[in-house]
Amino acid sequence: MSGTSEAVTQATRLSEIGFPEFTTKLITDVFDALISSNIRQTEAYIELLQQTSKSLTSFINDTKDDISGDMILDFLARALPADVDDQEKVTAVENNGGNATLDQAQANALNEALETPAEAGVADNNQVAVDGQNSYDAILDAVARRISVNKYDMLKEMVKQGILRLVIENGDIETRLTFTTYGSSFSRETQNKYNRKAFSAQARAKTGSILSRWVKASASTKYSNVTVTTTSKVDQDRSGSRVNILVV
User: pTM for the full model?
Assistant: First the structure.
């Protein structure tokens, strides 16, 4: 098949790409994504209002069990860090068979960090640390309650400041298709022929004493044949097509 024929054949397959269908799906998916994003933002804001409408006591009871161990450990590391010489620990509150041993200064520092407001409805304002042996689980529960209070305060502040919503008012959707075909064919024929034949014969004779010794007879024949054939043929065929389709 020549290059031109190949290029034309490929160009006629442009409809197989399904570019209009692709553009339609792109527009539909973008529209659906915008609607879904708006719905999720609305749902998040409604959930925020529902959580902050609860009393602090209810919020603590509903969320304290969801506080992760990493969050609790981070709280203890900041409230009561380990000794600077102890590189293996991050907090001085260590679990020793279900108990944690604290001195008076450590207990006071931890109680100060664990204190909750009166509206939280926590016994003794969440002050669980004492000088001496402490229940390790009780300390973890107190930390979880304190973190829940912090989350409640943060959500309340977010409601006061208002929630930031992302709204897209206008925009452009652009799709582009570049369809390129190229065909090329090339042939070359070269023939060289050279032939040369040559023949030569020569004879000489003397007449003897009848003629003068200065008289001589001679004969010669020469034949030559030269054939030269040269053929050169070059065929070139190049063809291409380029189609740009832009949808905005």
Answer: 0.55
